[in-house]
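We modelled the chain as a single entity of 359 amino acids. Its sequence is:
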Amino acid sequence: MKRITTIIVIILSTFVCPTSCKAADEKINSDTKVLKSCVFNVIDYGAVGDDKMDNTAAFSACLKAVIDAGGGRMYLPDGVYRGKIVIPAVSKPIPGWLTVEIVGESEPTPVWGTVGSSPLLSNGTIVKSLSKSGSAVISAGTSPNPLYFKFSAVNVVIKNLDVRTYDDPNIGGIDLRYALQCKIENVFINTGVYLVQASKPSHRTSGLVTPANNNAAQTILRNVVVTGYHTGIVVNEHTDGDNIVVAGNVNGLEFPFAYHASHFARVLTCRNANNITVSGKHAFAIEQMDTERAGTKQINAKNAWQALVSDINDPGNLGIADINYWVVEGGVGASEVFIRNGGAFVRARRIGSAPTENK
């Protein structure tokens, strides 16, 4: 029996994919059957998660290795990594696009609420940039020789990260407008301040920008929380989201022009001045928009900007949408009030009720 067990272990180990990356110049061919690189640890490229060192160069070196290998995973062990992550443009003459994963070791703790004070801790995998201008903390570069337009031929996957800037940020959190596709899962994008204490964003920066209209546009969002920005999430076409939280932003979700419709399952909107803003013709559906607006006793001089202006801010009547909503007012309870600014073609329905009239 012992001999048989040993043989089984040897056979299994032969087929298990390695958990760490091999040298970037290794190739797959019919003679050697050598496995190509799959996981690239940022530590091996000089990154240090000490909340002091600027890791921008180390991130770039690691991502270059990922691209050169034909795609793979950039892995960040737990720590606080200062710097920016710029995903290099993938251009012709490649035969098609590739996948770049940026993955942290631990799932972040999403911190949001309507009252009190809760400091953001430095646990898990945090990528933080305190730059006062320039690109977002994580961004995709434009292609000098694209498949079409300026888009980089890359599918970006981001998981298990806490992405931080600073109060009233002049840079964004994650900007993937020039990527073809993306999947973002278990990601907390914030300004390093509990949202109730956040200053009013005075720069038109966004926590997350999804891939813009392109031939292969597709965005998948799962367990994503954005707090403290002028716009929480810029939702471009072909976006599918679930368990999304936008809190303490001027605009929670913004829908710009899109050819194709977007879909959300559950979205929680909290202390946004405008929960949903429509800036271009865009069709979308939200199966459950669960809103908690700050009560009159939960607003002070600093966070008065978070008092609700509208649930739907669509002055140009550009949105074509179906929304099922539930509203709770802090200190009061469930409310039937749903505030519109335009939105003539937005059909909103309180859960358990008939659709509301468009006023």
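As a brief sanity check on the tokenised model: Confidence is low (pLDDT under 50) at residues 1-36. The chain has one domain: 84-350.
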